[in-house]
Design brief:
By secondary structure, the chain is α+β, with helices and mostly antiparallel strands. Helices cover 46% and strands 14% of the residues. The protein has a single domain, classed as Glutaredoxin.
């Protein structure tokens, strides 16, 4: 039998205190750099109009688990980030801090993607986490302008056939 220290053994207390101080001093680990070139809201509106590209407004929350999952599993993919950067104007909006924009776009909760024309007219929205394949299909639907002529359901069938 392996000898176990008693709960609250004083000989481990200095080590635990040292570890706690080191972690507190170091602070949280930095978030990985995003490959998506996020723009502030007003700059994004201006760029979309200048470039003639649709907007992708991403409403995220700091404590939102689905947001973290979306950022790690979907938005971190190089092909998705590259497409967002080249065919749309990606705008990142904090659900926690930018209440006026959350109200303006009537966002219920994060994560939410709100897609708009270059003239800032609504196209569609996407609420919650979706996997990389579906998200890729959605941004191609918007970025290629297919929303003007084709229903999303028809376009989604084309995405599934291309797999």
């Amino acid at each position: 039998m392996i000898p176990m220290p008693r709960h609250g053994s004083p000989r481990f207390l200095p080590l635990l205190l040292l570890m706690a101080l080191a972690l507190a001093w170091a602070g949280p680990l930095p978030a990985p750099e995003s490959a998506v070139a996020w723009h502030p809201h007003d700059e994004g509106l201006r760029l979309a109009q200048e470039r003639g590209l649709p907007l992708a407004l991403y409403f995220f929350g700091k404590a939102c688990r689905q947001c973290k999952l979306l950022e790690q599993k979907v938005l971190a993919r190089p092909e998705i980030a590259a497409y967002l950067n080249s065919r749309l104007v990606p705008v990142q909006i904090s659900f926690d801090e930018e209440n006026e924009l959350v109200s303006r776009y009537r966002v219920v909760g994060p994560p939410t993607f709100y897609f708009m024309t270059p003239e800032a007219k609504p196209i569609d929205y996407l609420i919650g986490y979706v996997g990389p394949e579906k998200f890729s299909c959605v941004i191609h639907y918007i970025g290629e302008g297919k929303y003007q002529t084709t229903s999303y359901r028809e376009f989604e069938k084309q995405c599934e056939e291309e797999k």
